[in-house]
C-alpha cells in the first residue's frame, strides 16, 4: 500500500461542478459507469440510526450500511489501495484528464505488517465540499495506513502565505523580534489564521503554527527581509 504522490497539484484535482467543461466530464463519467454505486453503499438509502462510532467529528459523516463486497478479504481481485488525499467535491480529476468518484476511496484495503489483509470502511461526509470533514477523513486514512503498514509519511510543510507574512512583519519590532514576546506572538498568530481559508491560497484551511515553526520562519527571513521591513516573497 502507498500514499500516492499525485501528478496533479491539489487545486488541479478539484472538479468545479459549476464549470461547463467539468460538468460535461461528470456527465461523461456517469454515462460510462464511473460513478460508484450500491456495491459500496446505497447513497439514497436512509442512514443507520445514531452517529458513526469511533470517528472524530461524527456529526459531519453519514452512518451508512456497507454492502457485503466491502467486507470480502478473500477476493482474488483484492488490491491494495493507492491512496491520494480527498479533495473537495464528489469527483477528483485524474492525471489523464478523466474523473474518479471519491466514494471509491472510502474503502481502504491493505496488507498489514503480518501479511494479513485488512479492510477499513471510512464513513462518507454528509457534504463532500466540507473541508473540515475531508481533513478529518484524510487524517483518519493516513492513521490507518501508518498503524498497520511500514509506510511512513513526511509531514507536508505548508509555506507561509503573503497575508501571514504581512502579519508577521507588522508584529515584529525593528530588530525582527516579536513586539509582545514569542508566547503572545504565537498565540495571536494562530488566533488570526489557524483554520481560516485565505483567498490567495487553495481551499485548505491554514494550519496551526507551532512556536518552532514561527521562530524558524522569522529566523530564516530575518536578515534579508523582516529586519528591513520587507515581506518575504
Quick structural overview:
The protein is built from six helices and six strands. The protein has helices at 10-13, 20-31, 131-148, 162-170, 182-193, 211-222; strands at residues 2-3, 82-83, 91-93, 99-101, 107-111, 117-121.
The helical percent reads 25-40%
Q: Can you tell me the number of structural domains?
A: 2
Report the β-strand fraction as a percent range.
Answer: 5-15%
Rg of Cα set: 21 Å
Q: Helix-strand pattern, N to C?
A: EHHEEEEEHHHH
What does this structure look like?
The radius of gyration is 21 Å and the shape is elongated. The chain is of the alpha+beta class and 233 residues long. A hairpin with a 5-residue loop joins strand 5 (107-111) and strand 6 (117-121). The protein has six helices and six strands. The protein is 29% helix and 9% strand. It has two domains: 2-148, no CATH class; 162-228, no CATH class.
Amino acid at each position: 500500500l502507498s500514499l500516492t504522490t499525485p501528478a496533479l497539484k491539489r487545486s488541479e484535482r478539484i472538479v468545479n461542478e459549476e464549470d461547463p467543461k467539468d460538468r460535461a466530464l461528470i456527465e461523461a463519467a456517469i454515462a460510462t459507469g464511473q460513478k460508484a454505486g450500491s456495491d459500496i453503499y446505497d447513497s439514497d438509502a436512509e442512514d443507520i440510526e445514531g452517529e458513526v462510532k469511533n470517528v472524530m467529528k461524527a456529526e459531519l459523516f453519514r452512518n451508512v450500511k456497507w454492502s457485503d463486497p466491502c467486507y470480502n478479504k478473500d477476493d482474488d481481485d483484492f488490491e491494495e489501495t493507492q491512496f491520494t488525499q480527498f479533495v473537495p467535491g464528489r469527483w477528483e480529476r485524474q492525471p489523464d484528464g478523466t474523473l474518479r468518484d471519491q466514494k471509491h476511496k472510502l474503502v481502504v484495503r491493505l496488507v498489514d505488517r503480518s501479511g494479513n489483509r485488512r479492510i477499513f470502511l471510512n464513513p462518507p461526509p454528509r457534504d463532500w465540499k466540507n473541508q473540515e470533514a475531508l481533513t478529518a477523513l484524510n487524517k483518519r486514512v493516513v492513521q490507518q495506513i501508518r498503524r498497520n503498514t511500514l509506510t511512513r509519511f513526511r509531514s507536508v510543510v505548508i509555506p507561509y502565505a503573503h497575508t501571514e507574512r504581512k502579519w508577521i512583519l507588522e508584529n515584529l519590532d525593528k530588530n525582527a523580534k516579536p513586539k509582545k514576546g514569542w508566547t503572545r506572538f504565537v498565540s495571536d498568530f494562530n488566533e488570526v489564521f489557524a483554520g481560516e481559508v485565505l483567498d490567495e491560497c487553495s481551499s485548505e484551511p491554514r494550519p496551526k503554527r507551532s512556536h518552532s515553526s514561527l521562530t524558524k520562519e522569522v529566523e530564516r527571513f530575518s536578515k534579508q527581509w523582516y529586519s528591513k521591513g520587507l515581506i518575504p516573497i
